[in-house]
Design goal:
Low-confidence stretches: none
Helix content: 55-70%
Order of helices and strands: HHHHHH
Distance between the termini: 33 Å
Shape: globular
């Protein structure tokens, strides 16, 4: 008999919500939108959905955070802005 996969509980879902990240305010201040971040990613698999999750605080893996940060820095480089560090963008370290 096969068992169905367990659905995440409310506690599991709440643990994944990290709150709006500093990244959101930085992108607003720099005038960079999600589309510009995805375009600057250059085909590394970054999607609009992942960027939105990063901004709004849905917990990402460390790999996802690195992809977002690299793309944000690439988009900033086009506008001649200084690179962003991990702790300036996220208030947690990905799992």
């Amino acid at each position: 008999m096969t068992s169905e996969p367990e659905k995440p509980t409310q506690a599991d879902t709440e643990n994944m919500l990290m709150g709006v990240q500093p990244l959101d305010a930085v992108l607003e201040a720099r005038g960079i939108n999600n589309h510009e971040v995805v375009a600057a990613a250059g085909g590394n698999g970054l999607t609009h959905k992942v960027v939105q999750k990063a901004r709004k605080g849905r917990q990402l893996t460390a790999r996802g955070q690195k992809k977002v940060l690299a793309a944000v820095n690439a988009a900033g480089k086009l506008k001649e802005l200084p690179p962003l560090k991990h702790d300036e963008a996220f208030n947690y370290i990905g799992r």
